[in-house]
Amino acid sequence: MTGVSDLPANPLSISLTFSHQRLWWQVDDEDHIPESWHVSADVWEFAQCRPGAVHVADVSLVISDLRQETNLLDAVDVEDWALDFIAETVIDPKQGLLHPELDDRITDGPPRMIILRHLRLTEEWRGFGLGGVLIASVLRALEPGARLAVCRVSALDFAHESPDRISAELASVRIGQLLERLGFERWHDVHVVDLRHPALRRACFEAIERLADDEDSTPKQ
Predict the structure, then answer these.
(1) Nearest partner of 98 among 109, 108, 110, 90, judged by Cα
(2) For residues 10, 41, 193 and 116, what is the CA-based torsion angle, rounded to 10 degrees?
(3) 171 CB-contact burial (10 Å; exposed 0-12 / middle 13-18 / buried 19+)
(4) CATH architecture of structural domain 4-215
(5) What HEC string does 120-156 produce?
(6) Is the pLDDT of residue 91 over 90?
(7) Helix axis angle, 131-142 relative to 198-217, nearest 10°?
(8) Rounded to whole angstroms, what are the CA distances from 58 to 117, 131, 149, 151?
(9) Residue ranges of the domains in the chain?
């Protein structure tokens, strides 16, 4: 990760705001549908920040109850084809539960699954190695309420911002490698991580240590 002095603001001043919208009457089990969540990463209002760089990133998630026989697309944009693929891959269609083989690889916990749809860093914050840290932090924050997180990485996700197909493929490979550093494993064409995986905790702690050390070594003006 780049030194603190090179960034628009000290990353230790970035806060996460979690938001979820649902109709007021959707409170019972029979009304349950997968939850669409948004996480906004922003520099704390009292911290010094380069003009125009207060907003750092947006993270989009879906949280689904593994006990419910619901279609993930009921809760999100129908254009998000990856969600239906994930549901068919990790859910056993005969039981409506987590696939037995995958279930054996994940520690016990609340029967909920987090689907990481996307993380988008703003232009001012790209290239500093913050993407993985933010993903790990978001998942760690949601760990008490779910067992696992999954993500479908495809070159199609990068086609609109890549100059050609090869560039999109390389971008998807880089994201896959980033996820694997956080403890994700490839399982039937999706990336899966146990939310109790030590790599998630380690990614956060190591980033904090590096930033704190860099801040201590930066000459005071």
Answers:
(1) 90
(2) -150
(3) middle
(4) 3-Layer(aba) Sandwich (3.40)
(5) EECHHHCCCCCHHHHHHHHHHHHHHHCCEEEECCCHH
(6) no
(7) 130
(8) 11, 10, 17, 16
(9) 4-215
Measured distance CA(39)–CA(124) in Å, rounded: 18
Write out pLDDT tens, residues 180-205: 999 999 988 899 999 999 999 999 98
- For 81, the 3-state DSSP assignment is helix
DSSP 149-218: EEE---GGGGGGGSSSHHHHHHHHHHHHHHHHHTT-EEETTEEEEETT-HHHHHHHHHHHHHHHHHHHHS
Helix (H), strand (E) at residue 90: helix 81-90
Structure tokens that stand for 82 in this block: 């990856």
Kind and range of the H or E run holding 103: helix 100-103
Question: In the numeric block, which tokens belong to residue 201?
Answer: 């905790």
Report strand pairing: 112-121 vs 148-151: parallel
Structure tokens at 165: 């197909």
* CB proximity list for 72: less than 8 A, separation 6 or greater: 34, 62, 64, 83, 84, 86, 87, 115
CB neighbour class for 17 (10 Å; exposed up to 12, middle 13-18, buried from 19): exposed
What is the token pair recorded at 66? Answer: 């593994």
The structure tokens 């704390």 sit at 44
With 0-12 / 13-18 / 19 or more C-beta atoms within 10 angstroms meaning exposed / middle / buried, residue 119 is buried
- The average confidence (pLDDT) of the chain is 83
**pTM of the prediction?**
0.85
